[in-house]
Amino acid sequence: MPLIVTGTIGIDSVETPTGKADRVLGGSATYFSAAASFFAPVRMVAAVGGDFDDAHKHTMARFPNVCVVGMEERPESKTFAWGGKYLENMNVRETLFTELGVLAEAPPLTPQEYRDSKYVFLANTHPAVQRELLSNFPDRTIAVADTMDLWIDTANDDLKALLGEVDGLVLNDQEALQLTGKRNPITAGRAILDLGPSFAVIKKGEHGCVMVHREGIAALPAYPAENVVDPTGAGDSFAGGMMGHVAARHTAEHFGADPVTFDMLQEGLVRGTVIASFTLESFSLDRLAELNERELNERMQEFQKIACAD
Questions:
Q1: 3-state secondary structure of 95
Q2: By percentage, how much of the chain surpasses pLDDT 70?
Q3: In 223-261, which residue ranges form alpha helices assigned H by DSSP?
Q4: CB–CB of 96/68 below 8 Å?
Q5: Is-contact 207 195, C-beta < 8 A?
Q6: Which of 156, 212, 288, 293 would you label with 175, given CA atoms 20 to 30 Å apart?
Q7: DSSP symbol at 260
Q8: Is the CA virtual torsion 96, 48, 46, 206 positive or negative?
Q9: CA 1 to each of CA 168, 194, 245, 251: distance values in angstroms, whole numbers, following the listed order
Q10: Strands 216-220 and 209-213: what pairing?
């Protein structure tokens, strides 16, 4: 069940009302891979610079289900770095600095042994780069992309070209409004489907998520987290949990030409919501690195009771 993610590996410096973390491991592909690895093996394609040190590599090694053959090291370059500060309610953050590093260079090459990947997630980066990377996987079963406000504003034509080639899009409610001009997430989701995808997953932060699919609508609350240390990476972890489950279940039941079903995606939303709730409990990937199967299953059962009243 080859699940692959393309995106960024980053070095983050984060300040929240609970504390600070300097130069810790982050990035869209990193959080996605760590979360997805609880459900399925993951292949990662991303680039890092010479400042990606042993401590960062050790953190990655704590997720043995993540294959890093596609992590391209560029000794003369710098790893993408981001610094941010979250305000008191954790819903709003201020970007303090962004250093593109390797992101200003050519995208990493996809290893030949990765090109048979069936389940593809294009984590947040320039949509032209996402589209170029997508072309490496001609036999894919499903391809899903993430995006952000910057690309909606500065690369709208490239993003719309990408949407004509992917099966799904993941974005937050403000990005959905920006892309479509529709404030209601259901209406915005339907407008996104008009651009090409079969489904759109719209994240609403502490209010959960909505999936608008050609076969119906699914909605979930957020997990009622009490211990919120750092929201960074929660959205990428959500996508990782969703796609990890989809890859595992589809492989087990329908390996071949059968499409990914509405039910598989809906179940994936549950896994994504739960795994993201653990990401919130620490800076960087520390909580995910400590997470065990028993804790994950217990919270899954708890969330299913919360979300589905019998």
A1: strand
A2: 97
A3: 234-254
A4: no
A5: no
A6: 288
A7: P
A8: negative
A9: 19, 30, 11, 6
A10: antiparallel
Q: With contact defined as beta carbons under 8 Å apart, do 163 and 197 qualify?
A: yes
Mean pLDDT within 71-88? 96
Q: What is the mean pLDDT of residues 102-117?
A: 95
Query: For residues 65 and 41, is the Cβ–Cβ distance under 8 A?
Result: yes
DSSP 22-41: EEEEE-HHHHHHHHHTTTS-
Question: Chain-centre distance of CA 145, in angstroms?
Answer: 9
* Planar angle of CA 62, 292, 262, nearest 5 degrees: 100
> How far is it, in rounded angstroms, from Cα 158 to Cα 269?
27
Cα–Cα–Cα angle for 176, 162, 97, nearest 5°? 60
Q: Which of 179, 230, 226, 221 lies closest to 200, judged by CA?
A: 179
Quote the CA–CA distance of 91 and 205 in Å, as a whole number.
8
Tell whether the torsion through CA atoms of 88, 90, 92 and 95 is positive or negative: positive
Question: Token match 């896994």: residue?
Answer: 271
